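Question thread 4412

I'm putting together a teaching handout and wanted feedback from people who do this every day. The idea is simple: show students a protein as raw sequence, then show them the C-alpha cells that encode its fold, then repeat with a second protein so they can compare. Below is the first pair exactly as I plan to print it.
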Amino acid sequence: QRKSKISASRKLMLKSLMVAKAKEELEQEIVEKDEQKAKYLDEKAPPIQTSGLSSAELRTLCEELHARIDVVDEERYDIEAKVLHNTREIKDLNIKVLDLRGKFKRPNLRRVRVSADAILRSLLGSKHKVSLDLRANLKSVKKEDTEKEKTVEVSDWRKNVEAMSGMEGRKKMFDAAKGQNQ
C-alpha cells in the first residue's frame, strides 16, 4: 500500500475547509435563487393597488384576476394532459420494443473452418501474397532416434522374477545399483 504524502491532521483540516467552502457556496446559491424568484414575480405579477378603489372597481379587478387564474389553470391542465399522453406513449413504445426483442430469436452461429491463408488474406488484405504453411514449420523427428529410445526403455520385466523375489533378490538389486553408482 502507498502511503500518502499528506499527514492525517492536514487531510482533516483540508476536508473541513472544503466542507465550509461548499456550505458557503450552497447558502449563496439559495440566496441567489430567492432573489431570482422575487425578481421574476415582480416582473410577472406586479403588486396590486387596492387603496382608493371603490367596491365596483374592486369587483372588476377580482373578476380580471379570476379570469387570469382560469387561463393559467387551463394552460396548466393542457400541459399536464400533454405530459401524461407523452408518458403513456413512451411506455407503450417501450413495451413494443421489448415485444419485438422477444419475437426475434438470434440464430445460432455455426463454426466455419477457415485456413490460415484465408485468415492472413482477410487480415492483411488481398495485396499481400503470404502463404503460411504450418506443416513446413513443424520440427521433423527422426524415426531412428525414437526407436532406439523405445528399445532402451522397454525391457522385459518378467525376466528373473523368481530370482529377484524375496530378500535375496532385493539384495542383488541393491548390490547392482551400488555397483553402477561406483
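The second pair follows. I'd like the answer to focus on this one:
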Amino acid sequence: MQSGNQTFVTHFILVGLHHHPKLGVPLFLIFLAIYLLTISGNGLIIFTILVDAQLHRPMYWFLCHLSFLDMTISCAIVPKMLTGFLLNSKVISFGGCVIQLFSFHFLGCTECFLYTLMAYDRFLAICKPQHYVTIMTRSVCNCLALGTWLGGSLHSIFQTCFMFHLPFCGPNEVDYFFCDIPAMLRLVCADTVINELVTFVDIGFLALTCFVLILTSYGYIVAAILRIRSADGRRNAFSTCAAHLTVVIVYYVPCTFIYLRPGSQEPLDGVVAVFYTVITPLLNPIIYTLCNKEMKSALWRLGGHREVQPH
C-alpha cells in the first residue's frame, strides 16, 4: 500500500535462525520433537494435578497455570518456525505479526508474575505455616491467579500498541524467528530511542524486579528451612522449592539478557531467545518431575503403582 512517495508494510518476512539450507529438515525434526514433548509433558502435569486429590493445593494449582502458559507460548512461536524450516514459508502478515507479538508478551509477562506468585506461596507455606491455610484460600488463589493474567494482558496491550503505532515504511525482513520488540524496532522508519527506553524500563525492569522479589522470598525460605530440625522435613521443603527456583533461573536469566539490551543486534540474541521460548517450556515439566517428590509420587500413582520406591 502506497501513499505519495511512502510505502507502508503490509507483511513481514521472518528471517528465522541462520542455518545451512540442508539443515532445514533436521532442524524441523528436532524442533517438532521439542514441540510435541513440550505439549505432552505439560499436558501430563495438568492432567496429573487435576486427577490426583493429594495435589489439590495452591502450589499445584499455580503449577497448572504455569504448564498451560508453557504450552500456549510454545504454540505461539514454534509452529511458524516449523513451517519455515520445512516449507521455507517465512512470510507473516502485518496482523499476524501483531497477534504473535501480543500473544508472546501477554503469556510471557503472565508467566513472570506467576513465578513471583509461586515464590510468595512457598514463602507463606514454609515461613508462615500457621497462617498459610487461612491466607491461601481457594478464592484468594483464584483472585491471585486471575491477577497474573490480567496484569499480563494489560502489559501486552500497552507494549503492542506502543510498538505498532510507529511507522513501518522501509525494509520488512525481521532478523529473528518471531515478531518481538527488539527485532521489530530495527525496521521502524522513525526515531526509536523512546521505545527502547520504555522497553528497558517496562519489560527489563519489570522482569528484574520480579526476579529480585523471588530471590528475596527464597532468602527467607532457605533461612526457615535451615531451622527445621527434622532431616525429612528439610528434604521435603528443599524438594518443593528446588524445582521452582530452578525454572525461575532458567527463565529469567535469558529473558533479562534480551530485554535489558533492546537495541542489541548480536547474533547470540537469537540463540538466547530460542532457549526461553522453546527450550524452557520443555524443561519445566522435566524439572518438576525430577526435583519434586510429590509430583513423582503422583505420576507413580497415575501409572497404577502405590508409591515411589525409595532410593
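Top answer:
Good format. For the second protein you could add a caption like this: The chain has one domain: 21-295. The first helix runs from residue 24 to 51.
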